[in-house]
Amino acid sequence: MVLFENVSKIYGKSNVKAVDDLTLELRPGEIYGFLGPNGAGKTTTIKMLTGILPFESGRITVFGRDVVTDAVAAKREIGYVTDSGVMYEKLSGREFVDFMADVYGVSVAERRQRCDELLAAFNLASAFDSRIETYSHGMKQKIAIIGALVHAPRVLVLDEPMVGLDPQSARELKEIMRRHADAGNVVFFSTHVLDTAEKICDRVGIITGGRLVMSGSLDEIKAAKGDESLEDIFLSVAGTGTEV
Amino acid sequence: MHGWFLMTRTLMKTFFRKGKGDGSRFAGMIVLAALGALLSAGVAVMFAFLGPAFAAVGIVPEVTALLLDAGFIVVLVFGTIGIFSYVYFARDSEFLLSLPVRPSAVFLAKLAAVYAQEIMIAALVMVPGTLALGISTVQPATYYIMILLALLLVPVMALLVASLVSVPLAAAASFFRRKGAVSGILLIILFAAFMGVYMYFVYSMSYGTGGDQSVEEILAEMQSGMVTMASVLYPVYALARFGTLTPALVGSVAGSALIDLAIFFGTVIAAGALTVLISGKAYKGAALRQNEHTSSVTSAREYVASSALGALMKKEWREMVRNISFAFQCLAGVVLAPVIVVVVSLASGMQNFTLVPLPSAEIMAWGTSLLMIVMMGVGMNQFATTAVSREGQSFAYSKTIPVPYATQLLAKIIVADIIAYITVTLSLVAAIVTAAIGGYADPLAIVLSAVFLLVYTAAYVNFGVLHDLKKPKLDWVTPREAVKSNATTVVPMLLDFLIGILGVVLVCVLTIVFDANFGLPAAGTGIAFGALIILSAAALVWSVSYIRKNADKYYNRLSI
């Protein structure tokens, strides 16, 4: 599992906390949707988990491994897809996957088997040996996902993964996320698309102003808020301190 | 005109506006400015001393022209790279060309942005020496007008030539699959050929064997050689003649000055007109073809497994060589350094051999070669000093992959070492061959130089990588910003130049002193090189230890 314990993050010398005392548990076998308005702290949370950003207080562990004191071991458990789509664009898709597989220690046989499945699912086989700089935004997103999954991570972290994907690919990705979670792994993703969150998430969390204001299964959240739609709930709590 | 003005204003803002974290580089900029001032001061002092001698020999216009030529060449070389990366290979080309602005206006606006950057480098190269020369030789007021005109217009001329050169190059490269790599190779070949042509004119400076000629004959030959060299860039020579009021074309001083000024301005205007005429259509076609990726399939078709270190090294190499800005800045030295070593070696070897008694001539000639190897072969290679900066936004991967930072850094260091050692080896071989031909090859100096370079190169690479790790420039938009507009690269380079100069001076001085006082030049050479080797080894050991202890600390500080 992934555990956030009283994690706080302040940028620069300001007093404003980008993430304020976050405590959250992500369990194996579930898809956890992380919702929030722009600037709420979703990406900051994800970047702290994946080791990109340091944090001022608290602790984050990934299957018992502290992301600060045992960083390499913790990172080995994580597959991460950024929201910005930046990557090594001078590499071909295959070279990029080889790179990711090598740094995570995946054998040729394993990477071939996993990639062939994903390439077929994403219809990316024909572009696999072309340079990433020639890819469309959606194609870059797909190759990033393949790179994140090549080592079968126990924690799959995706930041706004549906952006730029065509409907077919978005559906494929949701199915991949579901299968990955059903295999006993953690899937943690941020999104603005509430419809997606409603369809695939086992639990959701709503963060606003750096604070996690709501967390639980959709049934729990809706029951607590008088059976409103997730959209209504989201719009009402974003900016408030309502707890489930 | 209006479109060009709007475009230029916007591009200048994006080019020069500070990014995140640039404020923290203020201290680095101060150091950079101080080093630049020191270098300028050194050049100015040198030309202030030599000025009267040049005046006595009657070669002030020619020396002035060569100083301006240096500025022209520097802007031509770096401006061409800038044009390729900022004009043709820029990511905003398609967006800008979709706007209701003429393609020629887009091209000229981008050229203006490149000019604004290059003029600073041109000033550093041209102004200190010419100013000192003008003062020490009591030149007329026109000389200082010439300096101002040169500062403003010599870079313009160089960039116009660069833009004319880049049109066929970009067009040729656009038909290839690996556009970036092909452009880089064509540029390197072009500049190597240019330096080779210059070699021919350097030979024209030779003035015999010294033993059979009178001083007057030697000076006459030197003057003739200087005129030939200065005439290579004739419009710049004409400007220098205007500045020094040297009548060359007609008897009247005023008439000759006006004609020279007309030649210079006429060339600038003609080049400008050609550029405007050709640039619009040619730029649009070439720029859009650069962005067409109909077939950029790489050769590998199978999965290839490597160790984590191997994978990182492959990634480093591929990301560098497939990006034209990176490839040129990091690899051009492999070709250019040996060429420059040969050019300078021949010039210095010829001069010292004829005028100075042996063995001092040998060590001074070899010392000049060694200095060029240290400066051009080691210091100009930017692979190490941009090792982290070149990652840019993809640095996120460095933070997320389960590979210790020390291993990631090791991959960068190994690739940097390979490139540096290839460059140094080729340069050393070129220097040895040239020394053998010139008759000043000293086996002891050659062997000790090789040992020194072996140790010093590794130490410099470590220092360069470490320096970039402390404050990398990760927020670049165009690759050129990571290599060219990156102040971090200049400090190690200038320090390398300083070390090279001090080291060579030490070797020459000790050799001459031991020769003069004890008749043992080899002892002096051995002691000097011994000291350099020991100091380099100490620096290498320290840098390895420091990186091992602090890599994590510096990596953890970095965020994007």
Can you tell me about this structure?
The complex is a heterodimer of chains A (244) and B (560). Chain A has helices at 42-49, 71-76, 93-103, 108-122, 137-149, 167-182, 194-200, 218-224, 230-237; strands at residues 2-10, 17-26, 31-35, 57-62, 65-66, 78-81, 155-159, 186-190, 203-208, 211-217. Chain A is α/β, with parallel strands linked by helices and 244 residues long. In chain A, the strands form two sheets. In chain A, strands 6-7-8-3-9-10 form a six-stranded mixed β-sheet, sandwiched between helices. The two termini of chain A are 22 Å apart. Chain B has 560 residues and is mainly alpha-helical. Helix content of chain B is 79%, strand content 0%. In chain B, α5 runs antiparallel to α10, α15 runs antiparallel to α16 (443-470) and α16 runs parallel beside α19. Chain B is globular and about 75 Å long. Chain A binds chain B through residues 47, 50-54, 72-73, 75-76, 78, 80, 82, 84, 86-92, 94-95, 97-105, 107-108, 111-112, 115, 129-131, 133-134, and chain B through 180, 293, 295-298, 300-301, 303-308, 310-312, 314-315, 318-319, 322-323, 392-394, 396-397, 399-404, 556, 559-560.
